Amino acid sequence: MSEQVGKWASMQVGEWAKRANVSFTAVLLLAAALRFWGLGEIPPGLAHDEVANWLIARGILTGRHALYFTAAYGHEPLYQYLQAATVALLGDHWLGLRYPSVALGLLGIAVTAALACRLFGRTVALLTGLYLAIGLWPLFYARVGLRAIALPLTAALAAYSLVRMLDPPQDRRSDGPRRSIGLWELAFGLSLGLSLYTYMAARILPFIFAAYLAYLALFHRDRLRGRWRGLLLAALVAAAVATPLVIWLATHPGTEARVAEVREPLGRLLAGDPSLVWENLKANLGMFTFRGDPWPRQNLPGRPVFPDPLNGLLFYAGVGIALWRWRDPRHALLLIWLAGSLVPSILTSVAPSSIRDILALVVVFIFPALPISLIAGCGSQIAHRLSPSSLRPLATCPLAHLPTCLLATCIPATCILAHGLPTLRDYFILWPQHEVVRFDYQTALTAAAHLVDELGVGTPVVVAGLSVHTMDGPGIELAARGETAHVRLCDTRETLVVPAGTGGRLLVPEVVPFDPDLRDWLLTWGGQAIRRIDAPFDEYALPEVSALEEALPGRTALLPDGTPLPLPAVFGDALALTGIEWLGMEAVPGGRLTLLTVWRVESPPSAPLKVFVHLLDTEGRLRAQHDGLGSPPQGWASGDLILQRHTLDLPGDLRAGTYAVEVGLYVAPDGPRLPVAGADRLLLTSIEVEAP
Q1: Do 458 and 579 reside in the same domain of the chain?
Q2: Are both 296 and 416 inside the same structural domain?
């Protein structure tokens, strides 16, 4: 029995991996399971950035191509075209949107493990792959439909190609086919050039490789001897691939809105003030074990890369090993890469930023793998040196080899579990429950979309939102599995839509305020609150339009010449003003007037409209105004009622006297006014402003 224990303890980690069926394939299967499991539920909805990516993908499929997409702060195109392909193949839902990230993340693990294997051997590669498979940082970006996850893959491909290109002759595999001239040079140049089409942090990558080549020129000139032609070829290929994008960005300097928003630390540094860069440097150095990315949108706030002390110590041990062996090109590459990958976050606002540091994923998990590999290797060497003859007194005791068993297998397994179990807790349990995460990923809007599916197209549905003119409609379309063309949208902070027909429902997500005046008006005229247990939205049964129209106040307005005009009054065959009501009348300087206008849809317009309400003095000068209509025309049907709340804040220096109030419609954002009875506006009852 002791001989069997001794044999088991003396296995190399690579041999142990084979006998236990734990291989790189198994690592990828584990990574795939973690990335596909509950992909439609976690993240708990679709963020605006993902919806924006889907809109770009739909545009590509309709023929709108670009080298750089300017929508949503600007996007490099490589990921967008991949996403367009999966949306076309898999459909307009979360799988089509997020599958490219899963695939790119898995490929990134495979290539990074291959790089680690080339540099440090199978054991380090296997451990690195396991860390990447179970770490929260790589897991997160492989489960959201964002383009940054493409960068670690292309960057790792470039690094692997460069390492192969610079291999010493004695390190080249003699059992493989002779490589074609220029193969790795072309691969290096192509992957480096393509990296610039993935994410803005890739722009530091050429400097990382340049620093590494400078290091080799200083300390290992023999590694570069005879390879300058290959390096020149690689540089030309990279330049040829990247030049179209570089030229486009250079000729469109105002298109990268996000870069302009976050460049304050760099701007201050160039102006001679390094204080923000210094603070960012400290924050980025602390992200590994002390305090990580503070943004809930992309991390459990403040969670470091290595939240457990064991793996944190192993990471620093790996950095220490690399520093001690800095004259070894393999370790120097790790150090140069890690330092360079932090630069984008150091030079921009809100540090540390896991998305701007994403280039570090290529090397960061190699560091803890280095000391684990050394520990396991020591255990294996000890086990190989042990024999029954040398330990004759203990030969019959199975526990004699327990220390070497621990060194060779149990310690690596413990380290991996210590890193993986917190990931399961933090990502799949704690992170989705965070209030900001539920807001950013529109959890309530997603739940409302699922109820739309449940109610069916026969039920008129109104969904409240905060971005009704931009992202809410596409977000509901993506989250729902059925038809959504019948869904009306409104911003209940100022607008309420009551659809024609019977059985209408209003769904107000928990993050969307419901104006008290509009809510009271709804409940007063027959609306009813419906209670759903644990629903992240409030639901109301809406009254019938016919009952509301009979109760509408304010049934008369005036034409500009003073002629009375009975309501309803139709504006441009689109909307009819059917009622008006003053909800608040603080008619003193510095006071506030609150007006409710009620509109009936005659024929849904193709363009969004705005209602204007103006307060005019006796000379016709504008003294206060409100423009708004928090509901897009998509989804409207003839007969729908729209209630719009207006607030007019009176100037503090407003003189006492009589003021006219006019109301009308125009095409948003600044188009023409819609005609009404031969005019372009109507007058309401004059307001008497009193002296304070």
Answers
A1: no
A2: yes
Whether 466 and 576 map to the same domain: the answer is no
10-residue mean pLDDT profile of the chain (692 residues): values are 46 47 82 97 95 96 96 93 97 95 98 96 93 98 97 98 84 47 90 97 97 97 90 96 96 83 91 95 97 96 97 98 97 98 96 97 98 77 51 47 60 92 98 96 96 94 97 95 94 97 94 96 92 93 86 83 93 95 92 95 95 95 96 95 96 94 96 95 93 81
> 600: closest CA among 565, 569, 576?
576
Domain end marker among 378, 403, 432? 432
CA distances from residue 502 to 527, 600, 603, 640 in whole angstroms, order as listed: 12, 16, 19, 11
Residue 254: its pLDDT value, please?
81
Identify the pLDDT of residue 546. Answer: 83
Q: Are 444 and 537 in contact (CB under 8 A)?
A: yes
Same domain, 484 and 626: no
DSSP label at 673?
B
Is residue 7 exposed (0-12), middle (13-18) or buried (19+ Cβ within 10 Å)? Answer: exposed
Interatomic CA distance for residues 132 and 390, integer angstroms? 41
Task: Decide: residue 485, CB within 10 A, 0-12 exposed, 13-18 middle, 19+ buried.
Answer: exposed
Cβ–Cβ < 8 Å for 81, 465 = no
Residues 426 and 455 in one domain: no
Write the CB contacts of 494 (distance below 8 Å, at least 6 apart in sequence): 515, 518, 628, 630, 644, 645, 646
Return the SS3 of 321: helix
For position 394, what pLDDT does the model report? 44
Domain count along the chain: 3
Q: SS3 of 377, please? A: helix
Co-location of 469 and 583 in the same domain: no
Residue with tokens 């990296």: 195
437 within domain boundaries: no
Domain holding 658, by residue range, is 554-689
pLDDT for 412 equals 86
Residues 376 and 267 in one domain: yes
Q: Give a yes or no: residue 364 inside a domain.
A: yes
At which of 412, 432, 452 does a domain end?
432
456 φ/ψ angles, rounded to the nearest 5 degrees:
85, 170
- State the pLDDT at residue 549: 77
Q: Note the pLDDT of residue 174.
A: 45
Tell me what pLDDT residue 380 has: 55
pLDDT at 169: 59
**396 and 251 part of one domain:** yes
Distance CA 75, CA 69 (A): 5
Residue 317 is assigned to a structural domain of this protein? yes
Alpha-carbon gap, residue 663 to 644, rounded angstroms: 12
pLDDT of 561: 92
Q: Are 608 and 668 in contact (CB under 8 A)?
A: yes
